[in-house]
Every structure is written in structure tokens, then in C-alpha cells.
Amino acid sequence: MKSVCVFAALVVACYAAPPAGVDEKLLSKYDNFDVDRVLNNDRVLANYIKCLMDEGSCTNEGRDLKKSIPDVLAGGCDKCTEKQKSVTEKVIKHLINKRPKDWDRLSKKYDPQGQYKNKYADLYEKVQKEAAKESKEPSKPTKDTKETTKVTKDTKESAKAPKA
């Protein structure tokens, strides 16, 4: 599973200050990219993954990301802003928890010899610990959940009441 950390570098391609060889304008135009829209929509996320895996068509953003991957993997995230690091970690956590098979596939494609595993090991370990902590925390009931529970209790109680 440690090879999964390579996808962190893939995400950095959209958000990081560019390493040598990557067009700065290409990457900076995605500083305000809505990553939550992608992560919260399985169809859109699946399309990005298919693009990166050469299994489907790419959006402009997907093409730019794919084009940047080799340089980003080599250059790392040394010049990333805190926001860029935060977005990268968010994507990693999401994929570790929700799409682990895609993590493995992307890692095998973009780091087949495992040369970037050690480079990104610290980031991966941090994200993995946070993801594990989040998955252990009980989910808090929402207003809708509370109302459904109340309706269910009321319905059960009225069903038990003697009929007149």
C-alpha cells in the first residue's frame, strides 16, 4: 500500500509551484480548481482516473495533469503552498479511504520501479494516519438522521398503542 503515496505527486501537479520543466502558467491556472467537486462525484473522479490510466478521454485539466506527472514526481512538492499541500492531502485521504484499488493502479503506472516510494513516504504516512483516525471516528448524526429516528420511534410507539 505504500506505493500509493505516488498519487500525492499526481495531485501536486495541479496545485504545486512547478518543478523545472513544467510550465508555470499551466499549473497556476488550477490554483482555484474545485477539487471537492471531483472528489464528491464518483463519475467525474472515475473519468479523471481513466484519463490518467489512458483508458478514457481527458478534460483539459486531465491532460495538463497527465502531462505534468513525470516532472512533478521528480521535483516533489518543495515549493508547494500550505493550501496546495492541504488539497493534496485531502485527495490522498479520499482515495485511500474510498478508492484504494485506483491508488494501486495509478502507483503501478506512474512508479513501476517504486523509485518515488521513499521520497513521498513521510507524506503518505501522515495522510494514512489521519485517514485511519477519521475512519475510526463515529459519524455524527445529522438533522435528517435525528428526525428519521424520531419518526421511526413515534411510528413504533403508535403501532404498540392499543386500538380503540
Question: Care to describe what's here?
Answer:
With 164 residues, the chain is mainly α. It has a single domain, classed as Orthogonal Bundle (Antennal chemosensory protein a6). The protein has nine helices and no strands. The longest helix has 18 residues, at 143-160. It is globular and about 40 Å long. The relative contact order is 0.18. Residues 1-6, 14-23 and 142-156 have low confidence and may be disordered.
Q: What count of helical segments does DSSP give?
A: 9
Helix content: 55-70%
* CATH homologous superfamily (4th level) name: Insect odorant-binding protein A10/Ejaculatory bulb-specific protein 3
What general outline do the C-alpha atoms trace?
Answer: globular
**Level-1 CATH class name:** Mainly Alpha
- CATH topology category name: Antennal chemosensory protein a6
**Multimerization status:** single chain
What percentage of the residues does DSSP assign to strands (E)? under 5%
Query: In sequence order, what are the helices and strands, one letter per element?
Result: HHHHHHHHH
Estimated radius of gyration: 21 Å
| Mean pLDDT rating | 71
Calculate the terminal CA-CA distance, rounded to whole Å.
63 Å
Low-pLDDT runs of 5+ residues are 1-6, 14-23, 142-156
Tally of structural domains: 1
